[in-house]
Amino acid sequence: MASRWGFFVKHKPAGQALASGYAFEISYAPALSDSLTRQQWVSNASSIVRITRGKGIVWTSGATKPFDMRTPYDIAALGEALQLNSDLSKRALSTHARAVLMHAFTRASTLKA
C-alpha cells in the first residue's frame, strides 16, 4: 500500500472476489510515516474503498512498534477521510474481521472430497 500500484483495480473482479467471500485488507501503518508514503497510501486505499463501495474491507495495523497502534475511533476517523462512512469503517474493524477469520477457519477445518 505504500508504493504506487502498476495496475488499476476493476469493479468486476473485485465484486467477484467479494461475492466469493474474500476481503480486502488495508494496513494503516504506512499512513503514519513520511508524506510521500502517506500520499500513495491514501491513493491506494481510496481506490479500494471506491471499487468495493466500502464492503469487504478489513483494517489492520501492520505496526512494527507499539506506538504505531491506534484506537478503533482513530481508525474510524481515518476511514471517514477515505469517504467511508463511520458504520462501514467500524464494521471493517469488527464484523468483517470476524467474518474473515471464520471463513479461514471453515476452509481449514472442512474435509474436501
What does this structure look like?
The protein has 113 residues and is mainly alpha-helical. The chain has five helices and two strands. It is globular and about 45 Å long. The N and C termini lie far apart (38 Å).
Secondary-structure map with pairings?
Blueprint: H1 11-19, E1 24-27, H2 35-52, E2 57-60, H3 72-81, H4 86-93, H5 95-109
Parallel strand pairs: 1-2
Question: What's the quick description here?
Answer:
The chain is mainly alpha-helical.
Which radius of gyration do the C-alpha atoms yield? 15 Å
Instruction: Give the % helix.
Output: 40-55%
Poorly predicted sequence stretches spanning 5 or more consecutive residues: none
Mean pLDDT: 79
Query: How many E strands?
Result: 2
> Separation of termini?
38 Å
Write the H/E string, N to C. HEHEHHH
Q: Total number of helical segments?
A: 5
Give the strand line-up of the largest sheet. 1-2
Please state roughly what percent of the residues sit in beta strands, choosing from under 5%, 5-15%, 15-25%, 25-35%, 35-45% or over 45%.
Answer: 5-15%
What distinguishing features does this structure have?
5 helices, two-stranded parallel ribbon, 113 residues, 7% strand, 2 strands, mainly alpha
